[in-house]
From TrEMBL:
It comes from the Bacteria. SUPFAM superfamilies: RmlC-like cupins. Pfam families: Ectoine_synth (PF06339). It catalyses: (2S)-4-acetamido-2-aminobutanoate = L-ectoine + H2O. It is an enzyme of class 4 (lyase). This is L-ectoine synthase. Keywords: Lyase.
Length: 130
């Protein structure tokens, strides 16, 4: 059993900040459970392009307001508390943040915590052995 409070991650390697967003990773690949679990905060007034070519991501918005744009077809979706989106086809997407968005995210395969978005918004596929 693992029990941790979000604040315990502050300032650790599991606390990743990238200017427009901050992600605290509660569960990582090293936990050996087949997924990672993150608490992520996206800052108001930002536009964020992502593309998880190597991962499936599920996002649950619990605070904030914005718009999710599917860059493949232009579909737009309102983001507000209670919204879930699943990027099950490695969808290229943009998150436009009106009010700070707070969300819980899962990744499969799990991230190690060392991943950094490349110029296309992609995380490399890393394992604990890399």
């Amino acid at each position: 059993m693992k029990v941790i409070h979000l604040d315990e991650l502050n300032g650790t390697d599991a606390d990743v900040e990238h200017g427009n967003w901050r992600s605290r990773r509660l569960v990582l690949a090293k936990d050996g459970v087949g997924f990672s679990f993150h608490d992520t905060h996206l800052k108001a007034g930002t536009t964020n392009d992502f593309w998880y070519a190597n991962h499936i991501e599920c996002v649950y918005v619990y605070a904030g307001k914005g718009t999710l744009v599917n860059r493949e077809n232009g579909d737009r979706f309102e983001l507000k508390p209670g919204t879930m989106y699943l990027l099950d086809e490695h969808d290229k997407h943009t998150v436009i943040v009106e009010e700070d968005i707070h969300c819980a995210c899962t990744f499969n395969p799990p991230v190690t915590g060392r991943e950094v978005h490349d110029e296309n918004g992609v995380y490399p596929l890393l394992t604990e052995d890399d």
